[in-house]
Sequence to fold (259 residues):
Amino acid sequence: MSILIEIRDICKVYNPGENEVWALDHVNVTIDRGEFVAIIGQSGSGKSTLMNILGCLDVPTGGSYLLNGQDVAKMSDDELSDIRNREIGFIFQGFNLIPNLTAKENVELPLIYRGVARSRRVALAVNALEKVGLGHRMEHRPSQLSGGQQQRVAIARAIAQAPPVILADEPTGNLDSHSTVEIMNILKELHREGRTVILITHDNEIAAQAKRVIKIKDGRIESDEVRDAEGTAIEGTAIEGTVPETIASAGMILEQTGR
Ligand SMILES: Nc1ncnc2c1ncn2[C@@H]1O[C@H](COP(=O)(O)OP(=O)(O)OP(=O)(O)O)[C@@H](O)[C@H]1O
Ligand SMILES: [Mg+2]
Fold:
């Protein structure tokens, strides 16, 4: 498999100075195209920070990031937004749905920014919502949907245009066990279709469903293990010191796209 993501000595320091926080402390990770990777760690360990950097939503304080072999630091804003729009489907921690738009309009929104024509947009949104089992809730607003359904709208929004990479930050957080199984099945299906899925979670049971589990603690990678079908580690490394991850808000994307 070819290398998709290669980060080297990535650091992210918030509030440099007296109250500085090393959210990521020299993190090294390589992810191949087509992998299904879980990034696990406790609250505050740096998962969302890492996801934001992997998704080109935030820039690291130090270190290098090669995406598809290209140095992200050397990309222009246009190139970065192009990558975010075409390559990556974001599923954000806490859904980030727009309250006064219906499920269908929420899924359509990023497609508007990508300049997709209306009829095609509607077709993609309907198709994505049907795929996550929400064909019967397309005209509902987020407040009229259950938590699990809102999360499925967020997934539909991320996958509508079939991006090759899915970045999901706690997609099953705060969901009941039934909804959790549904969401995980959708992510597994996306992986089977050939997408790279990077799943952030604090839940061991969820992480164990991925082929590879990277553990982050205090901004450092604690371990990085590949598992067999039974969930037994078949290849692994305990690593001194690194882990990152980041996700930004949909609001940020909206700002970046000028909406
Ligand atoms: N904008 C910010 N300014 C200052 N500190 C921040 C900022 N964002 C995150 N942090 C700090 O960086 C660390 C990592 O935060 P991050 O959001 O990446 O954690 P997380 O692993 O995603 O946690 P959770 O599981 O609770 O979502 C935390 O200690 C947090 O307080
Ligand atoms: Mg987080």
